[in-house]
Amino acid sequence: MRTNLAIGLIATVQFLAAGSVSAHHAFAAEFDATQPVKLEGTIAKMEWISPHSWLHLDVQKPDGTVERWMIEGGPPNALFRRGFTQESLPVGIEIIVEGFRARDGSLRANGRDITFSDGSRPFVGSFGTGTP
Amino acid sequence: MKRRRVFVVGILVGAILVGAVVSIVTTPELPETSTNVEAWMQPHTAWGDPDFQGVWRYEATIPLERPREYEGRAFLTDEEVEDIARVEQELSANRLAGFEGAAVGRRTLSESPIRGNEYNSFWQYHGRARQAYRQTSLITDPPNGRLPYTEDARQAAARSTARYGVGPYESYLDPDTGERCLTDGVTATMWQGPNGGHNRIVQSPGYVTIVHEEYQDRRIIPVDGGSHRGIPQWLGDSVGHWEGDTLVVETTNFSNKMHYEWANIWTRVSDTLRLVERFQRVGPDTMEYTITVDDPKTFTTPWTAVVPILRLPDNTQIYEYACHEGNYALSNILSAGRAIAADE
Amino acid sequence: MQQGPQRSSVTVVTAVAAVIVVYGSPLWGQAVDYVAPRTVAGWPDLNGVWQALNTANYDIQAHPARPALALVPAPPSTTAPPGTDWAIPGELPAPAVRALGAVGGVPAGEGVVVGNEIPYQPWAALIKQENAENWLERDPEIKCYLPGVPRATYMPYPFQILQGVDKILIAYEFAGATRTIHMDDVGNSPGPTWMGWSRGRWEGETLVVDVTGFNGQTWFDRAGNFHSDALHVTERYTPISPNHLIYEATIEDPNVFTESWTIEMPLYRRLETDKRLLEYECVEFVEQLMYGELGVFDPADGQRGE
Known about the structure:
The structure holds three protein chains of three kinds.
Chain A: H1 2-18, H2 26-30, E1 31-47, E2 54-60, E3 66-72, H3 77-81, E4 94-102, E5 108-110, E6 113-115
Parallel strand pairs in A: 3-5
Antiparallel strand pairs in A: 1-2, 1-4, 2-3, 4-6
Chain B: H1 2-22, E1 54-57, H2 78-96, E2 139-141, H3 151-163, E3 198-204, E4 207-212, E5 218-222, E6 237-243, E7 246-252, E8 274-283, E9 286-294, E10 303-311, H4 328-343
Antiparallel strand pairs in B: 1-3, 1-10, 2-10, 3-4, 4-5, 6-7, 7-8, 8-9, 9-10
Chain C: H1 7-23, H2 28-31, E1 48-52, E2 71-72, E3 92-93, H3 122-133, H4 135-138, E4 159-163, E5 167-172, E6 178-182, E7 197-203, E8 206-212, E9 232-241, E10 244-252, E11 261-269, H5 283-291
Parallel strand pairs in C: 6-7
Antiparallel strand pairs in C: 1-4, 1-11, 2-3, 4-5, 5-6, 7-8, 8-9, 9-10, 10-11
C-alpha cells in the first residue's frame, strides 16, 4: 500500500514537473554546478531589476581584506507581489549566500539560497499588506 | 472537417472546464468564485464590448503535452485530481516557507537537484497553490495531446535540450531569444512567462490591448474591423473580431526568426506562422483561452490548446520588466564562454 | 506667407510671438477654450495615436544646426608657419559617425524649455557637459534602453493613448515601451524603474500625471541633460483641438537642479486612417554593437568554424 502510494506520488510529481516552463539556459551557461560557494557578508547594495536581481555583497576574508561579490538572484516581481519592496533588504544587513561560482572565475555567484545567520530566510511568506 | 472537430472538442472541454471550476481546490488567498456559476453574466464595457479587463494568469497544473503515463487518456480520474491537489498544497507550503526543492518530501537545498531549482523558490512563488484540473494536457488537438512536430522541428527540439548547460556559448547568438531579452514569442504569452506570466488586458473603443509582463510584450489588437498590414513583426499583426461574447484574434505576418535559438521550439516564429485565438470568459474569474497554431515549417498539422486562465484581484499590478537594461547575464555568459575556450 | 500691406503686421506679430516663445510664459493653454469630446465613461477622450514634431530629442534647449551628434575638435595644425593665417576647420564629426553625412547631422531647434534655462546645480552642469562630450558612450538611447519620462513623449516615433477603466496605457513605438497610468489608488513603486511609476487624475480638460520611482539612468535628450533617481515629473496633457494636445512636463529633482523647470510642446494626432503603432524592437539592432566583440567569435566576422 505504502509503496503504491509512493509510486503514485512520484508519478504525480513528474506530471506536475512536466508542466513547468522549459527554463532558460542562463544558469548553466553562467555558473558552474561543480563549484559550490558559501559566502557570509554584508549587503552593499541590491539591484531590484529584471531578468535577475543582483545583490552586491562585501565579504571579509580571513586576512581582513574585503571582496565585493555580485550575487545573481531571481526576478524581483514575485517579491513585489508578496509585498516586499526595495526597502525590505537594507544596506548593511548580514546574510549568508549559498550558490555556485561563475564559470569565468570572477567574484560572482548565483544566489541559490539566502539565509540570515540564525537560519531564517528573508523574503519568505508575505510582507505587510502587499497583494496576495 | 478539422475545424468542426476542434469546435466539438472545444465545447466538450469547455463543459468539463465549467465543472472543473466548481471543483477547484481553493486556498484562502484565491479570489472567491461564485457559488452559482450558471447565474454569472458576461459584463460589458461602457460602449458595449464584452469586458475582459483585468490582470490574468495561468495557475493550473496541466502540462502542455500529455505525459506518457496518461497516453490515450484525455482526462484524469477524480482520485488522481485529488492527489495532484494534495501534492500541490504541500509544494505551496514548502515554497511559502522558503524551502528549496520542488518535490514533495524534499525540504532541504542539498536534497534538491539543481536543474529547476537554481534559485530559492521565494524568487518565483506568488503565494497561491496551483489548481488541479482534469485535463491531462493543454493540447486537445491532435487527440494524442502532443505537439505534431515536423522531423526538422523534432530534431531542433532535441538539439535545444542537448545544448542546455553544455553550449557552446560563444556569441550573443547562442543564448535563446528570451535570454537575449528579445521575446519568447506570442504563442505562449497568455499562459507562460519566465517570471510567472501575468497579462493585463485593457480595453478602449476599437481596441483590446494585452500587456504581458515579460519583455514588455504588448499587443494592441484592433477589434472593429481593420485589415492586416503586411509588415512582418516579431509579434505578428493581429486583427480581432467579436463572435457573441468571444473575442477571436487572427495573427499573421510574423517575421522569420527561425535562425535564432528558441527556448521552446513550439513558440518559434516564422513567416508562415498563423495563430487563431479565442478568448471566452466562463465565470467571474475564469477565462477559457483557446489557441490554434498553424506553421508548416514547424508542425505537420495545426494544433490546438485549451487553457484555463484565472483573473487576479483588482489590485494586482504589472511591474516593469526592463530585461535588456538589466541583462548582466548575457555578458556574463559570454565571458564564461571565453574562459572555457581559454581553458581548452 | 502673406504679402503686401499686411506683411509688416505679420512681422510684428511674429516678432512678439518669438519673444514670448523664447522668454515667456505658456502661450497656447491660456488662449484656447476647447472642450474635448467625451469617452462613453464621461472623461475627455484622448484616445488615439499622437506624435511630437520638434527636435527636442536632439536637445531640449534652443540650439543651432551642427554637423553631427558626436564632434571632435579639429587637430592643431603642425605645418602652418608661425604668424600665418590659414583657414582651419571648426569642430568635425567624430570618425565613428562621419560616414552618415547629412543623415547624421543635428537640425536646429527653438527649444521646449520654458525660459530656455535648465537650473543645474554647479556640479551637475559639469556632468551635463561631460555627457554631451561623451555622447556615443553614454546616451542610453544608443543602446535601446527605455527612454524614461518625458523623453519618451518626444522621441521621433508615434505613441498611442488607450483609455481603459482605472488604467490609461501610453504605448510607445520606440522599444515597445509601455506606461500604465494608474487612475485608481495604488501605493508607491516597489522598486526603481526606467519608465517611472505613474498616477493620474483629471483636472477639467487636462490629464495630470504624477511620475516617480525612477532609477536615474535615463536622459532628457541627446545633449546629455540628465537627472537622478529623485526625479519627479508632473505631466499635463490638454486637448486644444480635435487633433492637438498641449503637453507640459514639470521637472523636480533636488539632487540635480536648484529649482523646478518646465518643458512644453504641442502633440499632433496621426491622421492616417486606422493608424497603428509598428514595431521598433531595437534590442536586436544593438546586439552587435554591445556584444559582438565579447564572445569567443564575432558574428560580424562570419560563421563560426567547426
